[in-house]
Amino acid sequence: MMSRKKRRLWIVVACGIGLSSAVALMLVAFRSSLSFFLSPQQVLAKRPAPGMVFRLGGIVQAGTVVMGTRDGKPYTTFRITDGQTAIPVVFTGVLPGLFRQGQGVVTIGAMTRGDREFVASTVLAKHGASYMPRDVEMALRKAGKWNPKFGPPPNAAAWDDKSPRAIEADSKG
Amino acid sequence: MERTGTSDYPGQIAAGSIGVPQSKAGAWLHRFANPGRFQRLIQPILPWLAAAAFVVTVTGLVWGFAFAPADWQQGIASRIMYVHVPAAWVAMNGYAALAICSLLSIVWRHPLADIAAKEIGPVGAGFTLLCLISGSLWGRPEWGTYWVWDARLTSVLILLFLYLGHMALIRAFDNPQHGYRAAAILGLVGAINLPIIVFSVYWWNTLHQGNTISITGPSKIYVTMLYPLLVSAIGFYLAFLAMVLARISSAIMENRARSLLLARAERGGA
């Protein structure tokens, strides 16, 4: 005969399996609304109606940032890319400190009529997972291994335990 | 034979009224169910543990905030990670500990696990709050916002609510045993949130970045920043342990004092 402890253990295990499958199904069902932003590819696939507010995220494409002022307010145009497609973005306002070419950003706004461009009301910078001191970044740049303009840093194994001098020496050897 | 090991007066357990368990595994488990033995084991260690927690945490934080280099693009605000990341780890592993105590409580009716679950709650909630506040202060200069409703931030906020709910539920009943049972169910159900927090940044697009520290692959952080982070994390874990053990220890003494008072009142009334 099963002891009471064993029975309680099996009840807990059964409840655990039931609950986790229920939550897993729920998360899969709500997958699209749980994502914080759409990538340019997803925007092309879903074609949100003009004026419908959504979040667009990706990398600020190098060489596309144009800054100016309009009616005394800072005004920026750039393209957001996911490596496949790029969507032109127009933003009036102050950009966050981390905004630069090659940086991940999430913008909130809507497409204009005819899917011409994305008018953003907010631009948030998305930080990558890498943390490196300035001299390491300079060394990688000098060694020709990374230009922050063109996307995320190289594989961490190439830099996370080497001195800046060793990183530069690697490229010459 | 079944021995539930529950008592409305934990003082009785401490006084040695505990039964002899039958199986070997049970014997091992119930060796640590005796609050008296727990007190004798923990009391001498506790001051040393608290001192170690203080020294290691201060070392990690001073190293991180004063000596480690700042990130090349985040600047000085990157140093917030020496508080944020350890707080987040402790918050999640604290909840894992709470869930394990809940399992011991439901299945084995382990009296010390009940007390441990009750005392982990407020400490874990404190670390979760620290994680949310420090992250928010980092987010303002770096992301450009204090808060967004992305999957990682929302799931950690839910973790805070689970802690708060557990704290309220375990204290909500006149009979503490009822509180322990109900809160243990909440503790186990809430554990489903832990994998969601961990994998949220991979399953969905989030504003929060992915993991920097990896156990299996290279960490995406330079060594001079990694070491203070790890020291700080060890300090936070020691601090969590010291706070929880001190709370359990005083809860046991409180329960014993209450049961002694009750016994005296009963004698006086008879």
Automatic annotation (TrEMBL), chain A:
InterPro entries: CcmE, CcmE-like_sf, NA-bd_OB-fold. Heme binds at H127, Y131. Keywords: Cell membrane, Cytochrome c-type biogenesis, Heme, Iron, Membrane, Metal-binding, Signal-anchor, Transmembrane, Transmembrane helix. The keyword Cell membrane applies. It is a single-pass type II membrane protein. Its main location: membrane. Gene3D superfamilies: Nucleic acid-binding proteins (2.40.50.140). Residues 159-173 have a biased composition (Basic and acidic residues). NCBIfam families: PRK13254.1-5. Residues 144-173 are annotated as: Disordered. The gene is ccmE. The keyword Cell membrane applies. It is found in: Cell membrane; Membrane. Residues 1-8 are cytoplasmic. Residues 30-173 are extracellular. Heme chaperone required for the biogenesis of c-type cytochromes. Transiently binds heme delivered by CcmC and transfers the heme to apo-cytochromes in a process facilitated by CcmF and CcmH. It comes from the Bacteria. This is Cytochrome c-type biogenesis protein CcmE. Belongs to the CcmE/CycJ family.
UniProtKB/TrEMBL annotation, chain B:
It is a multi-pass membrane protein. It is found in: Cell inner membrane; Membrane. Pfam families: Cytochrom_C_asm (PF01578). Its main location: membrane. The keyword Transmembrane helix applies. Keywords: Cell inner membrane, Cell membrane, Cytochrome c-type biogenesis, Membrane, Transmembrane, Transmembrane helix, Transport. The chain crosses the membrane at residues 45-67, 87-108, 120-139, 151-170, 182-205, 225-246. InterPro entries: Cyt_c_assembly (IPR002541), Cyt_c_biogenesis_CcmC (IPR003557), Cyt_c_biogenesis_CcsA/CcmC (IPR045062). Residues 48-208 form the Cytochrome c assembly protein domain. The keyword Transmembrane applies. It comes from the Bacteria. Belongs to the CcmC/CycZ/HelC family. Required for the export of heme to the periplasm for the biogenesis of c-type cytochromes. This is Heme exporter protein C. It comes from Acidiphilium iwatense.
